[in-house]
Amino acid sequence: MRGAPPGRQRVRTARGRTAQSTRWLERQLNDPYVKRAKAEGYRSRAAYKLLELNERFHLLRGVKRVVDLGIAPGGWSQVVRKLAPSAAVAGIDLLPVDPIDGVTIFQLDFLHATAPDLLREALGGEADLVMSDMAANTVGHPQTDHLRTMALVEAGVMFACEVLRPGGAFVAKSLAGGADNALIAELKRNFATVKHAKPPASRKGSSEWYVIAQGFKGRAKLASEDSAEN
Fold it and tell me: Strand order in 88-93's β-sheet?
């Protein structure tokens, strides 16, 4: 067996640990973003995905109200609190999340009927940014996994169009190939610009991409466009 590269940590397969979990642990131990997150106090390496997307798209510039869909473990909200400390942040996740100063957290399924109203009430006004790092639990069947995750993206888009202020933005995790044509068409109808990006912090072997929609047109403008078309 070939040895590990210099400086790379190897993990012995322990009793009760599968080879797959051993590979995951080894990857975590040798991931520079994981090490950096620990050093800089972020709860996950995902924080750097938002930092890199923000550097390119300026998502957090001047934001006052932000929604974090799929907040666990909290890395994205930590970034918002660091770069926009006066912003109100409301997050939701099925998983429990340790408190974050200045963030209202709901442990609830985002698809639950009461979730949108809870998030709106916590914000106290229209959102400047809705961000979603949600992904459905995988079942090992690529087509099914893709459909389930994209359904969450679609739900996020519907919610964003209900809570965003005119000019607001939406960013969400999608999968390989990006959002499908129907979803892209809906985003382009509601936002001035729609782009896909894969931040450097996203692992090369991962199928995840992010869709970034900016310049929400606002419900009044959309209504007037619809009436003009009819």
Answer: 103-107, 88-93, 65-69, 127-132, 164-174, 209-216, 191-197
